[in-house]
Design goal:
Length: 127
């Protein structure tokens, strides 16, 4: 039982490992697909609502940051915006949130932490 049991244990371990890796790969692929769908549905709405805020002169420039810009958003992800020359961030947040149907956080460029501004300008998505 000793030697053959050890051989079986090794084979069982390898089979288990392959099964777990395959499951993780399937889960990651499903998460990527779900994120792509969320982006495809949400980004046009973000762009149009931020464009409307610009037309109403509520801000001049905008950058998307957070999971929608540099991660994989989920159905529960919020929208994070950094806005330049934003007179009323709450109004913009409500406007955008109404259109996209999810929570929106707006930070004024002039008041945001320097590290966040740097990353949003470097890695964020200009809107």
């Amino acid at each position: 039982m000793g030697a053959s049991s050890t051989g079986n244990d090794g084979a069982l371990y390898r089979a288990f490992r392959r099964t777990v890796i395959a499951k993780i790969e399937r889960d990651l692929a499903a998460e990527r697909l779900a994120a792509t769908k969320v982006l495809e549905l949400t980004m046009p709405r973000v762009r149009s609502s931020v464009g409307e805020a610009r037309r109403q002169r509520l801000c001049t420039r905008a950058w998307l940051f957070g999971s929608f810009a540099w991660g994989q958003p989920t159905g529960r992800s919020d929208i994070d915006l950094l806005l330049a020359d934003c007179l009323d961030p709450d109004t913009v947040a409500v406007m955008v949130g109404h259109v996209v149907g999810r929570p929106v956080h707006v930070l004024k460029l002039e008041e945001a932490p320097a590290s966040l501004v740097e990353r949003a300008l470097r890695d964020g998505v200009p809107i």
